Amino acid sequence: VSNGGSFKRKINTWANQRGNHGTIKQVGGAWEYRSKDGTVYTFEQQMPGQDKAFVKTITDRNGNKLDYSYTTIGDERLLLSVKDLAKRELTFSYSRADNGKMRLDKVTNSVGVDIEFAYYPKAATGYDARVGMLKTFTRGDFTETYDYRRLDVDPSVNLSSVIDANGNPTRYEYYDATDVPVDMGGHARGLDEHDVVHKVFYPSTAGNEFAEIKYIANSTDNKREITDLRRNQRTYTLNALCNPIRLDEPENKSTTFE
């Protein structure tokens, strides 16, 4: 459950496995999730062969409700609209990108503030691994542009830069695969050692101000050390599910999580 952790069935009860944010149950064959703040999420009934259930309604404790509707294109279930009790509505439109995958083209709302997305097209000649990846995000006069990197040893691409509407770049630098802790894959299942962010360079006059992330992963520790632009360091200690259980900050400040 997004935002609600994971659950495991124990006899006839679903018990929290990650986090403790609410309860989940089946009602008439469909799922219903109730968060600790009283918000209720109902889901569409799963069809045979489906491994997902899509949210149908969200109602907060004051009775404010959002209705979600979907469309099916091929074997993909895509969000079509979100509507509230005042009939305000977001609508979503899609098209198939040059890599053959469905991509979100536009989000339209009832007050006329539209959001548009553009994707990298197939190259006129040669091969471009960015095909189908997000190229620009536009809202009115505001446009962000995205670029990616590809390594010969890695078939997928990674985000390398984001350029904002004023031309200011944010750049991402990744660890070499040999510098990623060997035991890190045991803590983060499915990890590709080429996809681990090392530094994030933020827009600045000097052009070299960055935040740095270090990973400590072995048989006894699972930690992340984050150094911000002012070189202040924060250390997150994670459990086996990579949830934070302790945060250590400058001036000997610490916070524990349950």
Give a written overview of the molecule.
- The chain has 258 residues and is an all-beta fold.
- It is 2% helix and 52% strand.
- It contains 1 helix and 21 strands.
- It has one helix spanning 184-187, and strands at residues 7-10, 13-16, 22-27, 30-35, 40-43, 55-59, 65-73, 76-84, 89-96, 102-109, 115-119, 134-139, 142-151, 154-163, 169-174, 197-201, 210-217, 222-227, 233-238, 244-249, 253-256.
- The strands form 2 sheets. The protein has a 19-stranded antiparallel beta sheet, with no helix packed on it. A two-stranded antiparallel sheet has the order 1-2.
- It is globular and about 50 Å long.
- The protein starts with 6 loop residues before the first strand and ends with a strand.
- The model has no long low-confidence stretch (mean pLDDT 88).
Question: Short description, anyone?
Answer:
It contains one helix and 21 strands.
